[in-house]
Amino acid sequence: MSIKGLVAIITGASSGIGAGTAIFFAELDAKVVLVGRNKENLTTVASKCYAANKDVNLLTIVADVTNDSAIKKIIDDTINKFGQIDILVNNAGVISKGSIENTSMEQYDYVMNTNIRSIYNLTMQAVPHLIKTKGTIVNVSSVNGMRPFCGVLAYCVSKTAVDQFTRCLALELAPKGVRVNSVNPGVIETEIHKRGGMNEEEYQKFLKHSQTTHALGRAGTVEEIARTIHFLASSDSSYITGANVPVDGGRHAMVSPYNGEFISF
Ligand SMILES: *[C@@H]1O[C@H](CO)[C@@H](O)[C@H](O)[C@H]1NC(C)=O
Ligand SMILES: *[C@@H]1O[C@H](CO)[C@@H](O)[C@H](O)[C@H]1NC(C)=O
Ligand SMILES: *[C@@H]1O[C@H](CO)[C@@H](O)[C@H](O)[C@H]1NC(C)=O
Ligand SMILES: *[C@@H]1O[C@H](CO)[C@@H](O)[C@H](O)[C@H]1NC(C)=O
Which PANTHER family does this entry report, sorted A to Z (predicted)? Predict the structure, then answer.
């Protein structure tokens, strides 16, 4: 039931859902490997992990997951320090606005490289270790992977790819005892939207609008996602694999699988 003592790699750990998950895992006394691009931010999150559990065993790795050599370093450093990998949380992700009429190929490559290609390579290199421990993989996807939305085309395509990878990989690895699932958050209060191009005023409007687009009447919190990631990573979910779990205040149920919704993003 517990993840105490298990070695968990979390990408995108320097902010948002990744940071929240790292802190929660630290509290539960997992051995946490925090991967992020920004050294300062990663150090800040590491100190929050220590505040949650002063005895926690941490490894911080400054790396950009779109860099193939850096991915090798993530695996090597983790094995050198902890000798094994039990949990892989593929969380690093970016969003970028644009429709088919105005998304550049540079934007497309940036989103797909970060949200899918990186996961593919990191997962590929982690799998031999996960098979040894009969570990778990949790991919952080999005409600945008399950339902069509306009205005963030490359992001939606990348997240649907993550969902399908999750299901296919689950089937490939089930005979080897490795479970693979994703969480699909709705709107969660993090930096991702502003980094993707929203200004503060647009963001506040977007959050207000989220009160009507989510059945539970609000955007979600990082902790609510972290708790679900923990559930999927732990043996509490021992009979669940290949699942894309919406953690979105009911939003997926409000959008038809066939008729999209325009995001004023
Ligand atoms: C680092 O943190 C600052 C302050 O929260 C934030 O503005 C910035 O986007 C972060 N950078 C990265 C790469 O996470
Ligand atoms: C992943 O990156 C490694 C280098 O770390 C490279 O050798 C390998 O070909 C890459 N795999 C894929 C699927 O891109
Ligand atoms: C990619 O990662 C490697 C290993 O950490 C590093 O030496 C190299 O400078 C990185 N490349 C870029 C473009 O950041
Ligand atoms: C991109 O095109 C869509 C229509 O396809 C439009 O609604 C949106 O405002 C455009 N965005 C930019 C930045 O031009």
Answer: EG:BACR7A4.14 PROTEIN-RELATED (PTHR43975:SF2), ZGC:101858 (PTHR43975)
165 lies in some domain: yes
**Interval between CA 264 and ligand 4 midpoint (Å):** 10
CATH code (residue 221): 3.40.50.720
Distances (CA, A) of 61 to 74, 81, 85, 142, 197: 7, 12, 15, 25, 27
Residue 126 belongs to what H/E stretch? helix 118-133
The SS3 assignment for 223 reads helix
Task: Check if 155 is active-site.
Answer: yes
pLDDT digits (tens, 9 = 90+) for 48-100: 999 999 999 999 999 998 898 999 999 999 999 999 999 999 887 788 888 88
User: Does any ligand 1 atom lie closer than 6 A to the CB of residue 230?
Assistant: no
Ligand 4 within 6 A of 2 CB? no
State percent of the chain over pLDDT 70. Answer: 94
Q: Is the pLDDT of residue 124 over 80?
A: yes
Q: Kindly give the residue spans of alpha helices, DSSP state H, lying in 137-250.
A: 143-146, 153-173, 192-195, 200-213, 222-233
Token match 């325009």: residue? 262
**Residue that wins the pLDDT comparison between 136 and 2:** 136
| Count of domains observed in the chain | 1
In a domain, 220, yes or no: yes
Residue 262 located in a structural domain: no
Task: With beta carbons less than 8 A apart as the criterion, state whether 123 and 181 touch.
Answer: no
Q: What is the extent of the structural domain holding 38?
A: 7-252
The pLDDT tens digits for 197-237 are 888 998 899 889 989 989 999 999 999 999 999 999 999 99
103 lies in some domain: yes
Closest ligand (CA of 37): 1
